[in-house]
Design brief:
about 600 residues; mainly alpha; Na+/H+ antiporter like fold; Rossmann fold; 2 domains; six-stranded parallel beta sheet; 26 helices
């Protein structure tokens, strides 16, 4: 009987996943034809095929579980992308912008939400929820547009980090707000007069801090050694399994400590970001994360109840406009106040003007805690606001730079004579001089690097040999551990701004895949590759390579050149008076007898 129930449960999970992916793929293909972002397609798919429309997909517990995994993977990926070296120079102002804008959005948004006939606890909850922007949408689009390392991209990323970390504090304080909501409704709070066990609370806090400290110490000291051992496997399967196990175990541990599992996943990713394997891992986990995010955004669409919100559509539109304008002002204004140039501030404000996935998480926790009791229309209306907000984010981000350019002539904040963001408003990799990326640092790659560097060319290296990476990093060379067919690794090496990419990897199939990916990222870079066979050279040319060296032909050419060079030297010698004999190891030369 139990086995039958388990089989039925697994079948339901697979069926839900199949229906969601099929619906998301179908609608997204149509959106692609219409040049609409894929995330918008996922949202529309959920709304069309959900329980409140056609009813093909039910809002089941399995869908909720898959969505939870998607959020955990998202936070894990955010931790992996947290490049401490990039953020270090402007870390303080970036984090300050995130904190100030979140506080301002909550403070100004609370009285605005109160105008929609909510009590103060509900208004505060809504304001804190809409203060969260969409990490999934914004981060993905910034990566696709190669803007993550520009000034507005770095500010956006830092602000999203602060917001995501703030979710932990918000959820921890949710029981207090729930008690306030009950008091606002005139309901006596059970146990309100009971004395709290301060000793037990302090003990639990001490245990939590101690366990998290152990996780951090283990992640800094033990984890890199384990990953180095796992990296001996040329397939990188063990590296992926070990990293995923560490991320999920940290998420489970934080959940067991009554903290958010998303916090544990973020912490695991952050610790892994301190290792040389971060880019390879990010690229390997990326497809799985994107798959689950498709499920997550489709699940968001499932929650949209058109029947419930159809009668107040005008209220929802007003709320959407207010949320967007409020966040543009608070985030853009905070950026300007803390030193960002006006153009960067406006671009950042438009980029982060939406409500996000953690808005839905906070609303879900608040609903479960009873904060919206008697205000059941509020969560449904806010889901509709988030739906519209996410739907309009891609087009808004497409015009964000154009809107930012309108503010070029506006004055800088007078209390900042020199702004760090003004000095870094362009891509940080935009240095003068030629830049070449060498994929594969064997004998050929080393020889090329020496020749390029002797001519003053900046060289970045991609290599899968762990020992080589560690040695070259110790010598101060810019080298990235990873596979040249991994998009994340290529982007981290700077392929989007490289002038040339040289593929010296001996694997012909990997070389062909790399040619296609590189040409898709950088249309102008000169791609040079090596191959063993002439047929592969033609394929590489079709996939975007500018020059391909066929080793067999190159060997023949070099050998012929050496032999002919030897002949030329011999012809220049004076004619000997008689025949000479050669010793073993020397070239035998027979010259004609003298007359």
């Amino acid at each position: 009987m139990m086995l039958t129930l388990a089989v039925e449960g697994n079948t339901q999970v697979m069926l839900d996943l199949l229906l969601i992916l099929a619906a998301a793929a179908t609608v997204s293909l149509i959106c692609r034809r219409l040049k609409i972002a894929a995330i918008a397609g996922y949202l529309v798919a959920g709304a069309i095929f959900g329980p409140n429309a056609i009813g093909l997909i039910g809002d089941s517990a399995s869908v909720e579980s898959i969505s939870q995994i998607a959020i955990i993977l998202l936070m894990f990926g955010i931790g992996l992308h947290l490049d401490r070296s990039d953020l270090r120079a402007g870390l303080a102002p970036i984090l300050a912008i995130g904190a100030l804008s979140t506080i301002l959005t909550t403070a100004i948004g609370t009285p605005i939400a109160k105008l929609f006939n909510m009590h103060w606890p509900a208004a505060l909850t809504v304001a804190t929820a809409v203060a969260m922007s969409s990490t999934a949408v914004v981060l993905r689009m910034l990566q696709q547009r190669r803007e993550l390392r520009q000034a507005h991209g770095r500010i956006s990323f830092g602000t999203l980090i602060v917001q995501d970390m703030g979710v932990v504090i918000i959820l921890a304080g949710m029981p207090v707000v729930a008690g306030w909501a009950q008091a606002a409704r005139g309901v006596e709070v059970a146990g309100a007069g009971d004395a709290m066990d301060i000793g037990a609370l302090l003990a639990k806090a001490a245990i939590t801090i101690g366990v998290m400290a152990l996780v951090i110490v283990a992640g800094i000291t033990l984890l890199p050694r384990l990953l180095a051992e796992a990296a001996r496997d040329s397939t990188n399967e063990l590296l992926l399994v070990l990293s995923a196990a560490f991320g999920l175990s940290t998420a489970v541990l934080t959940a067991y400590l009554d903290l958010s599992p998303e916090l544990g996943a973020f912490l695991a990713g952050f610790l892994l970001a301190g290792t040389p394997f971060r880019f390879q891992l990010s690229g390997m986990i990326g497809p799985m994360r994107d798959l689950f995010m498709a499920v997550f955004f489709t699940a968001v669409g499932l929650q949209l109840d058109m029947g419930a919100v159809g009668g107040i559509w005008w209220v929802i539109l007003i709320a959407f406009v207010l949320v967007s304008m409020l966040k543009m002002l608070t985030i853009g204004g905070s950026s300007w106040l803390l030193g960002a140039p006006p153009a960067v501030a406006v671009t950042t404000g438009v980029t982060l003007a939406q409500a996000g996935e953690f808005t839905l998480v906070i609303l879900g926790f608040a609903t479960a805690a009873g904060i919206f009791e008697g205000l059941e229309i509020v969560p449904s209306a806010m889901i509709a606001v988030v739906f519209i907000s996410l739907l309009t984010t891609p087009p808004l981000m497409n015009v964000s730079r154009r809107l930012g350019s309108l503010a070029v002539g506006w004055p800088q904040a007078p209390w900042f004579r020199r702004s760090h963001f003004a000095r870094n408003s362009q891509d940080v990799t935009g240095e003068e001089g030629y830049r070449v990326i060498i994929a594969g640092f064997g004998p050929v790659g080393r020889s090329l690097a020496e020749k390029f560097m002797a001519r003053g060319v900046k060289v970045s290296v991609i290599e899968l040999n762990r020992k080589t990476v560690e040695k070259q990093m110790g010598l101060g060379r810019h080298i990235v551990y990873g596979d040249a067919t991994n998009t994340e690794v290529l982007e981290s090496a700077g392929v989007s701004t490289a002038d040339a990419v040289v593929l010296t990897i001996p694997d012909d199939d990997a070389m062909l895949r790399a040619c296609k990916i590189i040409r898709g990222i950088n249309k102008r870079a000169f791609i040079a590759a090596r191959t063993n066979y002439l047929s592969k050279a033609f394929l590489a040319k079709e996939l975007g390579a500018n020059h391909v060296t066929v080793e067999e032909l190159a060997t023949a050419e070099v050998m012929a050149s050496q032999v002919l060079n030897c002949f030329d030297k011999d012809f220049l010698k004076p004619e000997p008076s008689g025949p000479t004999s050669s010793t073993p190891g020397e070239t035998e030369t027979v010259s004609p007898a003298s007359s």
